[in-house]
Amino acid sequence: MSAAPASRPLLLGMGWFPDQPGGLNRYLRDLARALAGGGSDVRAVVVGPVSRQPEDPEVLAVPGARSVPRRMLAYARVAARAGRTATVVDAHFALYAFLPIVVPAVASRIRRLPLVVHFQGPWADESASAGEQRRWVVWAKRRLERAVYRRARHIVVLSGAFRRLLVERYGVVPWGITVIPPGVDLHRFRPGDRAAARTRLRLPDDHWVCVAVRRQVPRMGLDTLLRAWSTSLGEDPRAVLVLAGDGPLRSDLEALAARLGIASRVRFLGWVSEDDLVACYRSADACVVPSVALEGFGLVALESLACGTPVIATDVGGLPDALVGLDPSAIVPAGDSGALARRLLAARTGARALPDPAACRAHAEEFSWRQVAARNQEVYRAASAPGRPRGVRVVYLDHYGGLSGGELALARLLPALSGVDAHVIVAEPGPLLDRLGRAGISTEVLALADRTRTLARSAVHPRALPLRAVWDSGAYVARLAWRLRRFRPDLVHTNSLKAAVYGGLAGRLAGVPVVWHVRDRIAADYLPKPAVAAVRALAHWLPARVICNSEATAATLGLPGDRVTVVPSPIAVGPVPERRAGAGRRGGAEGLRVGILGRIAPWKGQHVFLEAFARAFGSPRGTGCGATAVILGSCLFGEDDYEARIRALALELGIAGDTEWAGYVDDLAPALGALDILVHASVIPEPFGQVVVEGMAAGLPVVAAAAGGPKEVIEDGVTGLLFPPGDVDALSGVLLRLAGDPELRSRLGRSGRVRAQEFTPAAIAPRISVVYDGLLAGGRA
Predict the structure, then answer these.
(1) Which residues make Cβ contacts (< 8 Å) with residue 95, sequence separation at least 6?
(2) Could you give the dihedral angle defined by the CA atoms of residues 751, 555, 604 and 537, in that order, rounded to the nearest 10 degrees?
(3) Over 60: is that where the pLDDT of 581 sits?
């Protein structure tokens, strides 16, 4: 007896590929084929024509030669007939799905079926980008889209960028959005004979060929590509750019190529057949996807890679998702013809080679349609069983979109949390969103006015607080509370001090329990006294629970012990960085590299570090000491004056020639691998001190001020060395001791690394979950 089909989905599409070209239509056809191949009883409804192939499932075509209202009514009738045996509806185009699933007077049984929507782009915005001038038309399309999306139990998007767009632009609740990258037809798109492909397209066999397969509309960025080609390779007699595709900009692009003087170096192929499309990819040395807006994923990138041809693409939408696991250097800023020109030239000359065909193909094989179909089946099952157990829904709030200590800790924590459905709301765009997006975390920007978001701590005073900041904050709290009421999370978790205040108020208004994550010492040596009083008072009222990153931080809040849980910040502990040859195994200062890592700010103590280094290793005549002081980090928040002062201090101490200013470091492993000793010299107690644990994780001997979080992390003489905060003589003595004892450095590095294992995300995440479970016990449906 044969097994029952996995499901009976009804797919509501726009057109059928290849009768009607376009990424949406190709995706619908390929998904329908993959679902049918996986055992599903699939039916699809599209606007005709349809040339059905043997491998296609049942496809019902609605005649297209009629007005839009009549076409929509006909589509609804056909969908109603096709859906009589369906178990789930999967809508791929909002216009045609509107009547069957939204309008009660028209809809039939299928309106009562579980609804899944595939969101492949903002239809209204795309029409505006393509030149639609009638505002009411764009407005009507957006309203229609929103009506369809908000009826869906689950929405499938191709990338994290489109998930964020759905939440921000359409107000869709994040919990029902699933990211499933598209598949690629690995049989059709595969490596082949390059010479034969070039012969087919009449391309010179000895030229460097670059291809762009794009519909010729403004958002595709083809004008940027032409300008980049003109700058980098327009005069190269052995380089040719091939543009495959058609559209309303065709004549404008041809005219631009002529004005730029590169018409003889650019081939416009127009619309190409399926076979010629494969030949385009196989013939090329590189494929370029220069989109400037509204790119859901970029299926052409996968098609090219499947043919073994590397891709250069912009950082728009889901394009980075397609490439970041293969070659991050091939991602360039959108609309930047100079950056694109430089990358093209580097690829052409070999200065920065693109991945080879084998690597391209292997990467593309990670995106098989079989996997896509299986993941869609999981979504169908979830939509059909809304009462299934779910994870804890938590909204995380942060006012800052950069990658400071607290934001890095959050980015490490969230992927490690088990059973948590996370959504992060930040008050400004920034690299934190990119980091979280690459980890599969849902994000959005709910913008707070810059004048309030960047308000300095010193401005927090009851009698001096700017009225504009009060107004901005009140309006923001109201907007955030409305969002929380709509999202209905189980918890709100604030990740910064400003977010604790506005998030705590919004959570109160929305009736959602709030967890404060306090990463700053609430003390007068760290914050202005009015701010200290305000935060301590609010801590008794706003949060249901407070997490602190150290006992030292917890002690400054003045809360009862049963309201506070101490959980250290998570630290990434990878392999020990490859150590440089030299001083790490010798005694004495010669060749020794001593570093201090962190934001350049007065309280971080770079001046203490330089003075201690000079006393330990400095030469009376400033002729060089054999050791190097390494300053890793940059200044933030207007602290440039302090950096100027410590640079002058290095000159004054006679160690300017022995001081290396490394600036901000994104990749810590090689930077720490180039050190022999790491110093942490804060002059006021550090709330936690991530840098301390990062140095220990790298196998370095760490020297830290004996106060705050570092004092809790380091056991003096066992896992590191401590010195009194601000004591230059004590620090210089510790440095001399370490310089003369390589065995001590080695022993401290080994034991410190063992201690660092207690701070991995996998070790910290369960401690956060315990807090959540304690708050929600018996209270979550």
Answers:
(1) 14, 68, 72, 123, 141, 144
(2) 150
(3) no
- Tell me the one-letter amino acid at 349: T
How do residues 508-539 score in pLDDT, each as one tens digit?
999 999 999 999 999 988 888 888 998 999 99
Quick check: 771 and 648 in contact, CB under 8 A? no
User: CA 82 to CA 122: how far, in whole Å?
Assistant: 27
Q: Would you call 599 helix, strand, or coil by DSSP? A: coil
Q: What percent of the chain has pLDDT over 90?
A: 69
d(C-alpha 571, C-alpha 697), whole Å: 8
Report the run of H or E that residue 244 belongs to, with start and end: strand 239-244
566 touches 548 (CB < 8 A): yes
Residue with tokens 């079989």: 370
Separation CA 607–CA 596 (nearest Å):
11
pLDDT tens track for 283-342: 999 999 999 987 878 889 999 999 999 999 999 888 888 887 898 889 999 999 999 999
Tell me: pLDDT of 621 over 50: no
CB–CB of 336/291 below 8 Å?
no
Taking the complete model, does pTM exceed 0.90, yes or no?
no
One DSSP character per residue, 212-239 reads EE---SGGG-HHHHHHHHHHHTTT-TTE
Tokens of 747: 């022993």
pLDDT at 761: 96
Rg (CA), the chain: 30
Shortest CA distance to 80 belongs to which of 113, 40, 42?
Answer: 113
439, burial (CB in 10 Å: exposed 0-12, middle 13-18, buried 19+): middle
CA dihedral 450, 453, 454, 456 (to 10 degrees): 140
Strand ranges across the sheet with 420-426: 442-445, 420-426, 392-398, 491-494, 514-518, 545-548, 564-566
Listed residue (342, 281, 266) closest to 311, CA to CA: 281
Structural tokens at position 243: 């543009």
Element at 374 (helix H, strand E) = helix 369-384
Q: What is the mean pLDDT of residues 416-424?
A: 95
Q: Could you tell me the CA-to-CA distances from 458 to 464, 473, 502, 526, 764 in Å, in that order?
A: 10, 17, 18, 11, 33
Burial of 509 (0-12, 13-18, 19+ CB in 10 A): middle
What strand order describes the sheet that includes 286-289? 266-270, 239-244, 208-213, 286-289, 311-314, 331-332
